[in-house]
Amino acid sequence: MSVTSFDVARLAGVSQATVSRALRDMRGTSEATRRRVREAARQLGYVPRQTARSLATSRTRRIGVVIGELGNPFYAALLDPLIARLHERGYLAVVVHDDDVSELDCEPLLDGSLDGAVLATVRAGSAAPEELGRRGVPFVLVNREQAGKWGDVSVADNRAGATLAAELLLGLGHRRIGMIGGPPDTSTARARTEAFRDALAAAGVALSPGLVVHGAFDLATGSDGFDRLMGAPRPPTAIFCANDVLAIGALHRARSSGVDVPSQVSVVGFDDIPLASLAQIGLTTVSADLRTMAVTAVDLLLERLADPALGQRRVLHAATLVRRATHAAAP
Amino acid sequence: MSVTSFDVARLAGVSQATVSRALRDMRGTSEATRRRVREAARQLGYVPRQTARSLATSRTRRIGVVIGELGNPFYAALLDPLIARLHERGYLAVVVHDDDVSELDCEPLLDGSLDGAVLATVRAGSAAPEELGRRGVPFVLVNREQAGKWGDVSVADNRAGATLAAELLLGLGHRRIGMIGGPPDTSTARARTEAFRDALAAAGVALSPGLVVHGAFDLATGSDGFDRLMGAPRPPTAIFCANDVLAIGALHRARSSGVDVPSQVSVVGFDDIPLASLAQIGLTTVSADLRTMAVTAVDLLLERLADPALGQRRVLHAATLVRRATHAAAP
DNA sequence: GTGAAAGCGCTAACAT
DNA sequence: ATGTTAGCGCTTTCAC
After folding, report:
1. Quick one: A262 and A188 in the same domain?
2. Global pTM?
3. Among A280, A212, A225, which residue's Cα sits nearest to residue A253?
4. Which of A171, A259, B181, B306 has the fewest CB atoms in 10 Å of its CB?
5. What would the pLDDT profile of A243-300 be if each residue is shown by its tens digit?
6. What's the total number of domains in chain B?
7. Which residues, in sequence order, are CB contacts of A32 under 8 Å at separation 6+?
8. How far apart are CA A205 and CA B320, in angstroms?
9. Does one domain contain both B170 and B106?
10. Which residues of B touch A47 (CB under 8 A)?
């Protein structure tokens, strides 16, 4: 078929094994033969077959990235630095689409075609971490986490972040506060909702059940949630959204229904995705530093590949408040 | 190491070859043994090694997707349906990052680890198409194209789209019109700019060189371009942007510099990325139907894998005008 | 420093 | 219908 290391060997007048060694600059090959081999390889346009190499070494230099719909700007914002970092460190990203509703098919992660995996969409009931752990596939959880004895973790300090949001709104004099939460089986939605509720409670403010809605982390949930909250008998003067996508959905509906933000109602998000900083949006939000979170996840995983004996690690990224244009004092 | 088809064979009391056949439901295996083999495989948690399979068959069920920074919402909007479609058809996407400035490293596309490639970022001088073509790696160009004797093509009808934009603005009475173009070595920027210029000329309106700026397809170029155009001695009353990202950058600057769109200046984009339809943006643009373009690209490629003798094909997707809130009659 | 040879775990052609 | 055997194209001992 196409050109193999045997062809290169023949042209260079050496054995196939020497070609293999020379091309990988292994010690135990003279500079002279290296040059001859390299020249022969160049002449023939030889590219080592990765599949053969993988079969022989059990390493593929490919990492699986399990992530949701990229139409969701949050996932796009997360995937970007993941891919960039993997690329920098000499790995290719194999994207495994997880629609976040049907159970993930783990087989592509277990068939030996990957050196490890980055899981960005685990839920409370996800089987993948347990499955990968038992089979010895190294992985890291990013963004969302799940208790378990395997896998490193790189997540935002969601509790601290939600507390910052609560303190901002309380400081602005808000007392009737609503929340648009995410899926309760995600660690992010859970931690953010609970910490926000706790922080309000600490100030003697209740997060009234009638002013809390839940749904998927998407624009529609944000829009509909905004409607529901503002349609309540006594609507809130501020809304905390469990992530930016929800918040942007809420702002969308605010605009189309003639509610002014922030004079009538404040809106605060979480994540600080790139969209949030667009002039037209100017969302006040909690920054989780997505880029650092992603880079850390990749680094944790690659360190583990280098040293499988490493203990389980969990990196919590500090959250900071980003004040833009969607918050104001309570009316 | 881990469990192989030999282990399954031993447990099921058959030969390894029979395991291979049974698990793939090949004709020439009795239903009884299939059941036994499947049961043994289940018991052992056997997953066929993809690398071994690939080495034996020269097929990997993986497609490379060469694409730019996903921080750019256009690429995210394009990658989403590409991945989804590949997934639907049983393929995994291996994302090969192309930073759009340094020369792409083709090796991952040539090392036999991919059945084919989708190229989304070709430029006039890109070597990849020629390289892949010569080596017999099937590929498809999506979004941007390049002349050449290999590879199928799935692109928008950029000329027709730009003509629609010109007609819209002319119809609104604009005569002093500016343009923010993209990189001149991309087929999209080129076709859109030229067709726009031609359409204006046909109406006796000149696209004055002083009112045309070029740059990368990013927000910064849109912002800076807007500044430059509006700072001209006689600023335009309408600006056509070669894509939505540029247009959103322009809108961003318009807002922060107190220029009202569309009463003072109209802005029209191209692509209709999801962002364009956000209420806060409401960009009037030309829809290229990204999703269909992506799905078509994948289908063209997979058809070619099934039948390599197929002639070269080029699918042009109709462009339509999407009227939102950034266009108005000339002041 | 280099060559010979034995795998890696499958698929597929060839027997039976 | 099933077993035997020969690859696929590398990496990696083990000799020399």
Report:
1. yes
2. 0.96
3. A225
4. B306
5. 999 999 999 999 999 999 999 999 999 999 999 999 889 999 999 899 999 999 999 9
6. 3
7. none
8. 52
9. no
10. 107, 110-112
